[in-house]
């Protein structure tokens, strides 16, 4: 028996149709056909344009009859179409008056904002047909993936060790030795490596569909094509990047990404996506029509009174995130990724934009951020904000949180870098950062702080100690792009050198950095490749470099095995000591009989908090009753960033315990890091000598 609502009522040039369902938006497979639904408040009419895959000319253009419009939604059910082999778009008619915010053009074919797959860039870097006006084509998918019981892992926030990686850059270099380099599938081949390193969460740079040819040009410096490599410029928010899939040319990118997520989960690794809701690839007034501009420009973008685009993103336009329509689209998008892709969390690029109202002013209680914090589908997802934007709004420590949001702690990055470099007057700030930044998150706890020293944006860790200045000439912007304040130091020689002494100092600084990072309370984040000394040759803004500047060179894993081993053992050490992963700030004594965190100078229990010094020691005392361990745990780190040797008097331990060496960054392997069951007992239990720019890490046994 046919249901009434699956029976066609109209026909257009032989294609049977009827009024559809207004919700959900997008293209939804229904019995007998496909339901199309698209919102536009200001359009006067709409047409559905249907193509066979890869064909330039449509085989059907179907106007939405007036009775197919429900409120501000055009909706139509189309029967008997082969949804696996079609592409579709919309043509909207309406006023054209940019000063009033209207950009309607009936000749433009527009991408569905809710498209779950997008054609046009199925193979990375393959030149499209530039004469085709419809560059990015909506496709229809059937969500029938067999997850075999998989679900998000829901690892406690305090236990995360995040690994930030670019899908293509992680495996594209020939040295990666994978079958399909630069793809989702290739990351599966690296899962054993990720497990050995010890990370339990991978944060992927944008995987939503974007156009790698956006602003593409040939570099006058290198002669190579510059690409939109990072992908911080979404074409569509619901579709994975087809060019990142080995099977993208077959339209299988959805299943390929889901297979990757399933395998990562099987191996205890969560997946966080870097999402970009602050702007789109349509750019400013001179940008292309792709989707939102032609569907309802005035709704989707923040506009000045003169109709120009506010540019709080630094990329030409700014999404009108707290408009109810746009807000609901973002919620729908994240719910879709959480439900259909089993994503564990999201990191929001330039998240402060999400707190601006429809005139661009910051709000105290932004409805979008509140809705995300309390959304039932996203209730277990990690929510991480990059708590600033390109319009000058800086909210590190003050981002609206509702007990849910964590933040990229940019102050942690800058303070640790300056201290490692040897800048004075930093120790007071270092004390805050290592404790989990109570000066910023006193009411939220250490897990609100995502601690990082390097990320995709800036120097790699090895470059931080190899270059005094950025070297971005290959970007074609006369070295004007990228941050100038890097707090880096090259140890007397700019770039690679054969000088043994300089290279030892650089490796030592890498070890110092990761030691402080993994001892700090909060959530540590490591940039992919830092664990084996990867370099970008001094480029601190490699957003356009689809080449060996950005690709991880896995040959360095062999030549810098010592760095990898140190990273791995430090991650293991952190996991074994819950006192380093506290969720609350405690200043009182705990069940160990000691303060949970105490600060020491070169004399135990005596630290001048007002001093300008490059030496500081911290002791963590984890009471067995407080942390569920078999015994009280004591960790002591003597940190000497001075250019001279210093002695540190050691705090006295409870009877029956002695200090043992875990790590000494001033030593070479194997004495730089001792195995857990082979920690070296200190001969002198009263004092430890720490060489210049070194850290000695001790534990009590």
TrEMBL record:
<dbReference type="InterPro" id="IPR013780">
    <property type="entry name" value="Glyco_hydro_b"/>
</dbReference>
<dbReference type="InterPro" id="IPR011837">
    <property type="entry name" value="Glycogen_debranch_GlgX"/>
</dbReference>
<comment type="similarity">
    <text>Belongs to the glycosyl hydrolase 13 family.</text>
</comment>
<dbReference type="InterPro" id="IPR006047">
    <property type="entry name" value="GH13_cat_dom"/>
</dbReference>
<dbReference type="InterPro" id="IPR017853">
    <property type="entry name" value="GH"/>
</dbReference>
<dbReference type="Pfam" id="PF02922">
    <property type="entry name" value="CBM_48"/>
</dbReference>
<keyword id="KW-0378">Hydrolase</keyword>
<dbReference type="InterPro" id="IPR014756">
    <property type="entry name" value="Ig_E-set"/>
</dbReference>
<dbReference type="Pfam" id="PF00128">
    <property type="entry name" value="Alpha-amylase"/>
</dbReference>
<keyword id="KW-0326">Glycosidase</keyword>
<dbReference type="GO" id="GO:0005980">
    <property type="term" value="P:glycogen catabolic process"/>
</dbReference>
<dbReference type="GO" id="GO:0004135">
    <property type="term" value="F:amylo-alpha-1,6-glucosidase activity"/>
</dbReference>
<dbReference type="InterPro" id="IPR013783">
    <property type="entry name" value="Ig-like_fold"/>
</dbReference>
<feature type="domain" description="Glycosyl hydrolase family 13 catalytic">
    <location>
        <begin position="139"/>
        <end position="574"/>
    </location>
</feature>
<keyword id="KW-0809">Transit peptide</keyword>
<protein>
    <submittedName>
        <fullName>Glycogen operon protein</fullName>
    </submittedName>
</protein>
<dbReference type="InterPro" id="IPR004193">
    <property type="entry name" value="Glyco_hydro_13_N"/>
</dbReference>
